[in-house]
């Protein structure tokens, strides 16, 4: 790839190189033999090491010229586009992240500097085989359909639906050619005209609006709101098709890896081929291929997790954020960024479109649509015969239930009916493990984690206690760790495993499946379990929030929410919003096929406004009320916030620093921002580190980042003190 004329540094010219090393500036180097250009990926010497970097521009020249070292070499990678460099700059400024950390995010593929590895590939040969079979015909058909493209043996066998021996036979006869080719090859082309569905009138209208945005070729964000099963996916796939037609690239972000597999199959049905995948479950080789091809234009569509946003797309025309309200889009460690917001930033710099899809949008996106910053499209009805489930409350104050049991007689009767009809029921409880708390009946001691301010959760399946903060586990003791009494430890409260025990006692003949992320060794095992359930392998599903995320269970007609009040406790400003979203999503799992569904919410406070809003189904009213409250309080999305978390092994040191920061708040006061705290964080100790929070509140229009940078810049972190700055915090633990 050649740079634009004029943008070139001749050999020996001073260039500024951004590296992935934690330095606070771009370093000066001399351009190598053959010169280099802005955006070029290079290898540079740093002390005794060679490190990866990107030419960021001209050098500053404020260094002793004699000491300036030379760029070692320009790597054989597509240069980083100006839009991408701009994106990293702006994302760094927004999240207050040092640039080297940003560049690390953007280069998370192995062996980028290595010489290309080779592999064996297969193409159409010259001769015809001696004897034609159906299997052979399919192999040759696939190769013919995909012109110049080469396949690995596994890809070819899978696409043609034949065994490897069929391919080997064809090679022997010269009908198929095999040769060595670089491992990082372009992905198969996707065909926008393959496999489109006939859309309903409402879907077609929404699809056309999105296509018009793509055709315009400039930035725009659209909130695509529609109940679960209304065909949002079908609609945004039309936007993907339009992007392909325009010769640009598309990125689809999903909130959960377990959903990818189902989704890839859907893309294949729609476009004839699978797209590239990018998430933690992808092999290192595939990661490198994806990273390189995205940059070279050898990849049209990527389906991935939030970090796919930092891939070096050459010409990104569309970003879809599916289930845009999902909290997993916020990265909570390392670089603290929200993929939904960064998607909007990235598209605005690359002249692309963003589609935010959800049945229950975040209040942020709802408000942006209200304010006219985002376009909004609504799909009001479910596709086909399916209707939204009927929702009602079970008033737990009126139910007779012995201690240690959670399935009310009313809920039991409803499940009985579904089982009798051969349908599926889901019992939803957002708590992993057997019991959240274990206490000693002799002394009252509650077993906690040694390193965290959190209780140890019993996981009976694993026969261990686990801390959900740090992941530490230990065998389930028989004696109380405090008083030593034998066999007096008792579980308190329910987790999904305990609920399973109760369900087995109530429905001994039923097939019961538990879906909780910790019960599956691998993403594959989880995926198989999900497919089995979808195929009807279970009568009763017991699940955590994992089941709320987009899985499609056609036989499911009843959702019972065990504890609808669970999310309403706590002081999180988004507690109401989150509960509303989660429960609507879970309820939306019921009745996807032609049988109508029902959702029953067990609650001790049926008159709570959030529970009433969920039951009433008047979503606009709920959002309007929630928006009014936030506006009155001046909190997001109507005001700005940043969370500062200070931590250290020593409690006193953390408090002292917090107090000092709160006192020296001049940079914040200058922009009219207020600082609250220091206060112990809700989880005051994690992994042996004491945690203290400060909260900064500012007006929507205030230049918050600048002030934060100045304010936190006054602090030098001594010893083992650490500070994390979280702009637009989503969680307050
Ligand atoms: P959402 O993304 O809103 O949950 P989907 O796009 O997954 O909805 O649609 C729900 C189901 O209905 C899917 O199985 C989908 O294939 C099917 N469906 C939606 N619209 C159509 C259509 N126009 N023609 C055929 N099937 C459709
Ligand atoms: Zn712990």
Structural features, described:
- With 733 residues, the chain is of the alpha/beta class.
- The chain has six domains: 14-105, PriA, 3(prime) DNA-binding domain (GIY-YIG endonuclease, 3-Layer(aba) Sandwich); 118-182, Winged helix-like DNA-binding domain superfamily/Winged helix DNA-binding domain (Arc Repressor Mutant, subunit A, Orthogonal Bundle); 201-379, P-loop containing nucleotide triphosphate hydrolases (Rossmann fold), CATH 3.40.50.300; 385-431 and 495-635, Rossmann fold; 433-493, no CATH class; 639-727, Ribosomal protein S10 (Alpha-Beta Plaits, 2-Layer Sandwich).
- The protein is built from 20 helices and 29 strands.
- The strands form seven sheets. It has a seven-stranded parallel β-sheet, with helices on both faces. A six-stranded parallel β-sheet has the order 15-25-24-16-23-22, with helices on both faces. Strands 2-1-4-3-5 form a five-stranded antiparallel β-sheet, covered by helices on one side.
- A hairpin with a 2-residue loop joins β3 (41-46) and β4.
- α1 runs antiparallel to α10, α3 packs across α4 and α15 (575-587) runs parallel beside α16 (609-616).
- The longest helix is centred in the first third of the chain and has 16 residues, at 201-216.
- The protein starts with 13 loop residues before the first strand and ends in a 6-residue tail after the last strand.
- The mean pLDDT is 90.
- The protein binds adenosine-5'-diphosphate and zinc ion.
- Adenosine-5'-diphosphate is lined by residues 197-200, 203, 226, 228-234, 383.
């Amino acid at each position: 790839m050649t740079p634009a004329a004029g943008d070139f540094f001749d050999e020996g010219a001073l260039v500024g190189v951004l590296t992935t090393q934690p330095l606070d500036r771009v370093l000066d180097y001399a351009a190598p033999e053959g010169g280099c250009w802005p955006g070029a990926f290079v290898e540079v010497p740093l002390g005794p090491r060679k490190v990866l970097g990107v030419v960021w521009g001209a050098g500053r020249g404020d260094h002793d010229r004699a000491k300036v070292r030379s760029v070692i070499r320009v790597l054989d990678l597509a240069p980083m586009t100006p839009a991408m460099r701009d994106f990293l700059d702006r994302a760094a400024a927004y999240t207050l992240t040092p640039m080297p950390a940003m560049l690390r995010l953007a280069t998370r593929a192995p062996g980028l500097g290595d010489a290309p590895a080779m592999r064996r590939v297969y193409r159409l040969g010259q001769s015809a085989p001696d004897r034609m079979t159906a299997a052979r015909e399919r192999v040759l058909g696939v190769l013919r359909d995909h012109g110049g493209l080469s396949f690995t043996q596994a890809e070819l066998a899978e696409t043609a639906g034949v065994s490897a021996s069929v391919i080997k036979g064809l090679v022997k006869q010269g009908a198929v050619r095999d040769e060595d080719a670089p491992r990082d090859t372009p992905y198969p082309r996707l065909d926008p005209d393959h496999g489109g569905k006939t859309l309903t009138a409402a879907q077609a209208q929404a699809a056309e609006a999105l296509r018009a945005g793509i055709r315009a070729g400039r930035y725009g964000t659209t909130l695509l709101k529609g109940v679960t099963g209304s065909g949002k996916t079908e609609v945004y796939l039309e936007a993907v098709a339009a992007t392909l037609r325009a010769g640009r690239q598309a990125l689809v972000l999903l909130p959960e890896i377990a959903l990818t597999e189902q989704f890839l199959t859907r893309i294949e049905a729609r476009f004839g081929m699978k797209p590239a995948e990018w998430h933690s479950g992808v092999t290192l080789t595939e990661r490198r291929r994806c990273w390189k091809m995205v940059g070279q234009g050898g990849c049209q569509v990527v389906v991935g997790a939030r970090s796919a946003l930092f891939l070096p797309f050459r010409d990104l025309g569309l970003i879809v954020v599916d289930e845009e309200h999902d909290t997993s889009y916020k990265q909570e460690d390392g670089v603290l960024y929200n993929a939904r917001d960064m998607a909007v930033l990235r598209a605005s710099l690359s002249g692309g479109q963003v589609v935010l899809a959800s049945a229950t949008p975040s209040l942020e996106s709802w408000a942006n649509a209200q304010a006219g910053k985002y376009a909004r499209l609504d799909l009001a009805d479910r596709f086909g015969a399916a209707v939204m489930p009927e929702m009602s409350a079970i008033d737990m104050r009126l139910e007779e239930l012995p201690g240690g049991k959670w399935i009310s007689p009313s809920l039991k009767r409803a499940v009985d009916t579904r089982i009798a009809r051969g349908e599926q029921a889901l019992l939803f409880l957002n708590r992993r493990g057997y019991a959240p708390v274990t206490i000693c009946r002799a002394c009252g001691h509650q077993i906690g984690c040694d390193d965290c301010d959190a209780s140890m959760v019993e996981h009976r399946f694993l026969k261990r206690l686990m801390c959900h903060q740090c992941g530490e586990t230990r065998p389930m003791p028989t004696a109380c760790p405090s008083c030593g009494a034998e066999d007096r430890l008792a579980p308190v409260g329910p987790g999904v495993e305990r609920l399973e025990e109760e369900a087995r006692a109530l429905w001994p003949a039923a097939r019961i499946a538990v879906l909780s992320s910790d019960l599956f060794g691998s993403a594959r095992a989880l995926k198989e379990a999900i497919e089995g359930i979808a195929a009807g392998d279970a009568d009763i599903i017991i699940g955590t929030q994992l089941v709320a995320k987009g899985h499609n269970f056609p036989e499911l007609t009843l959702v019972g929410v065990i504890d609808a009040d669970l999310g309403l406790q706590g002081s999180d400003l988004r507690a109401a919003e989150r509960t509303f979203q989660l429960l609507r999503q879970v309820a939306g799992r019921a009745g996807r096929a032609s049988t109508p569904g029902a959702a029953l919410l067990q609650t001790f406070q049926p008159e709570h406004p959030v529970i009433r809003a969920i039951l009433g189904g008047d979503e606009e009213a709920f959002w309007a009320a929630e928006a009014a409250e936030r506006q009155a309080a001046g909190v997001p999305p109507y005001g700005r916030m940043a969370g500062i978390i200070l931590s250290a092994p020593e409690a006193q040191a953390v408090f002292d620093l917090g107090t000092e920061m709160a006192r020296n708040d001049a940079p914040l006061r200058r922009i009219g921002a207020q600082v609250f705290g220091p206060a112990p964080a809700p989880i005051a100790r994690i992994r042996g580190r004491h945690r203290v929070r400060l909260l900064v509140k500012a007006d929507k229009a205030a230049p918050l980042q600048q002030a934060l940078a100045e304010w936190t810049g006054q602090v030098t972190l001594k010893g083992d003190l650490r500070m994390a700055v979280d702009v637009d915090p989503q969680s307050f633990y």
